[in-house]
Model the fold of this input.
Amino acid sequence: MKKGLLITLLLLSLATWTKAQEEGTADFSPLFFPQLKAELPKEVNETSGLFFHNGRLWTHNDSGGKPILYALDTTSFEVVQKITLSNAKNKDWEDICTDGEMVYIGDFGNNKGSRKNLRIYTFPLSSIPKEGDTTLVVDSIRFRFGDQTDFKHIKHEHDFDCEAMFATDDYLYLFSKGWATGTTRLYRLSKTPGNQVAEVVNGFDSQGLITGADYDRESRILVVVGYVKTLWKPFMYIIFDFDEAGVKLSNRRIEMPQLAGAQVEGICFFEDGQCYVTAETSPTITSKVFVVDFRKWIEKSLKNEKE
Done:
């Protein structure tokens, strides 16, 4: 993206934010300004998925990277621990999540739409030592998309890519990355290792590419990040009161103009109403980690529901 276009997009977004402040609607403005925490070390410059555990931010690199999970100290954001998955390969790792008992790593990146070896690696969360590196043997869930019958696609011109996953107490959910339509479908899988079919249970017009997700089981809040194709405009969705039975996707979209040009890839909760967001190295910025804090929005949403 040209520098002039980035500046124009940022100025337009700031103007909208200023107007919202003047009108007294800034708390629920469609704009959001994440706080930059640090530049990430080169060892994880293609950070793609995130989860928080033992006071550390865990991540991995995407396609072609080593089958390693990296723990980052949340003060220096340097790598302080590594978990190697001995019997896994990183074909195209795109997201990672936990349900509090197991860890799930999604090797389901599918830019060409032709992959038939999609899988999710899994191992017990308790296998991660509090300190020190280790090597683990993992199980895997092998799957296909139930609605995909054609595997001959043009790269980045189809809707069977996937980069976002989250876990509830009972299921794994995947958001498709809609290169062709800019929409997303929500798929559901069992957590049982073996061969499965991911069935569509919902979806919505995401108006962009979904690249990461996380779910807070206590508050039942689902967060999703992505960016607009070709424009590289990052956004986030906050989906309140996620209803697994009805799979409701009422949501609020938030634009993040401060991150214009960033390839936002990962998001995870670390405290109530606060998340880490990472962007991998792109043509315009190096890999970085940010914090988003939407506690005021949650409080206001709950207040409006009671009224």
The helical segments are 3-22, 295-306. Residues 3-23+30-306 form a domain with the Neuraminidase fold (CATH 2.120.10). The radius of gyration is 19 Å. Residues 1-28 have pLDDT under 50 and may be disordered.
